[in-house]
Amino acid sequence: MEHLDVVIVGAGLSGIGAAYRLQTELPGKSFAVLEGRDTLGGTWDLFRYPGVRSDSDMFTLGYPFKPWRAAKAIADGASILDYLTETAEQFGIDRRIRYGVKVIAADWDGAAARWTLTLSRGDETETLTCGFLYCCAGYYDYERPHAPEFPGVEDFAGTMVHPQFWPADLDYTDARVVVIGSGATAVTLVPAMAETAGRVTMLQRTPSWIAPVPGRDKYADRIRALLPAGPAHRLIRIKNILFNAGFYQYCRRRPESARRLLTGLATRILKDERLVAEHFTPRYGVWDQRLCAIPDADFFKALKRDRAEVVTDHIDRFVPEGIRLASGRTLPADVVVSATGLRLLAFGGITLSVDGEPVRLPEHYVWQGAMLTGVPNFAVCIGYTNSSWTLRADLTSRLVCRVLAYADRRGYRAVVPQPDGPLREHPLLELSSGYIQRSIGDFPRQGDRRPWRVRQNYLLDAATTLRTRMGRTLKPVRAQERAGV
C-alpha cells in the first residue's frame, strides 16, 4: 500500500495554494493532491453559468506568490481558471495532482500514527495511507445544491435550471427568464442573461445588500505601470486588504451610516428612491450576510436599460406559463433559473473516524481555524466569509507547514490540539445567511477565545497565527493514547 507524508484533498484554489506552500517550505515531504473531478479548478471549473465571476478582487483572491496580471480586478470564471492552471503548471503542482480520485473515508490508526484513506476511482475502491491529511475541499456540496420544492413545478411548460448544473446547450435568446434568488449568483446572472434574453426578472423574497464596485482598479493600474509585477502585486494587495478591512469595520461599527451609504449609491445610479426602498433596502444589517458586489454597477445598469426588473414577492405556485405570486401576479417565463443557493457539506463529505470510532463533528472544536480537537494530524482549509477566501486559506496552509515542522523537530509522530480549559461554544460560521443556517449544525464549533476563536479579521490573524506557541495547545499523541476532546 502506498504511503505519503501528506495528502491534500482538492485541486481548487485552496489545494493548489496548499501544494505550493508544502513543496516550498517542506521540500522533503512526499505528498499528492487528490481531486475527485477530472480537472483542476474546483469552483472555477464547475460553475459555468453566464457571467460567473469572483466576488472579491483578484489581488487578494489570487495568491501572494503569483501576481495577478489581468486588467480586471473582479474577474470572470474563465480568467480565474486560466490563472489557476497557469499557477499549477508554473510551479509543477499539476504533476502532483491525481484526478478522478475521491476520498470517501479516512480512519486514523493511533498505533501506526497514520491515516488510512478509502478512495473511489470510478467503479473501483482502493486505499492509501498518509501521515497528515489536509482537506482543501471547501465547505460546499458540489453535487447537491439547495433546491426548495416549489408547488406546481411539474406543471411548468418551460425549462427549469440550476446555476450549479448549467446546461451547455441552453439557448435563452429572446426568452422570458425568471431568476429566483437575491444573492451573488442571482445578481451575476441577471445582467449577463439580459444581454440576449428578451426579459429577465429577478424574483426575491427579501432584498439583499448590493454594493457597486469598480471592475478595474485604477490605482492598481497606476501602481503596475510604475513597478515590476511582484512588488506591484504586493503593494496593491496590502492596499486592498486595508481598504476591505476598514470598510467591514465601518459597516459593523456604524451600521446606520453603512445603510445610508449603500442605499445612497443605489439611488444615485437608479434615480428612483422608491425602487431602492422596496427592492434594495434589507432589514438585516450590512455584513450580517455576505455583501453582493456588482462590478461597474452592471446589475443596476441592466435595470436602467429596462432589460431586467426586480420583483419582491413570494411564490404561490408554478403554472404552465410561469410563476404565480402570492400577490396574484403571474410572471411569464420560458426559462426559470433557481439561484436559491448552495448546500454546505463539511470537508468534502469525507467520513472521518479515529481508531474505528466515527468523528461526530459538532462535538469538536476548531483550533486556529484549521485543526480539530480529538482528530490527530488533520487540518481543514476554511476561508473568510467577510473577505477574500485566499487570505485565510494561505495563512492556514502556512500554519500547516509550521505544525509539520514543529512535530518533526520534537520527534512527534502525531499532534492534536487540546484546550487548556472549558470552551464556550459558538457556531463555526456566524453569518445569518440561509445557506449557512440550514447546515451549520453539522460542522465543528469554535470557542470563545484564541486560538479557538475563528476571527474574521485578516490583519489580526496575519499578526498572530504564525507566531502561535505550539506547545501550549498542540499536544503529542502517544501510540497508546486516544485523542479525546
From TrEMBL:
GO MF terms held by the record: flavin adenine dinucleotide binding; N,N-dimethylaniline monooxygenase activity; NADP binding
Query: InterPro entries, alphabetically?
Result: FAD-binding_MO, FAD/NAD-bd_sf, Flavin_mOase-like
Q: Which metal ions or organic cofactors does this protein require, according to UniProt?
A: FAD
Q: Which Pfam families match?
A: FMO-like, NAD_binding_8
EC main class here is oxidoreductase
Q: Does the keyword Oxidoreductase apply?
A: yes
EC number assigned by the record = 1.14.13.-
Q: Keyword set for this entry?
A: FAD, Flavoprotein, Monooxygenase, NADP, Oxidoreductase
Give the family from UniProt: Belongs to the FAD-binding monooxygenase family.
Q: Under which name does UniProt file this protein? A: FAD-containing monooxygenase EthA
The species this protein belongs to is: Nocardia aurantia
Organism lineage string: Bacteria, Bacillati, Actinomycetota, Actinomycetes, Mycobacteriales
UniProt gene name: ethA
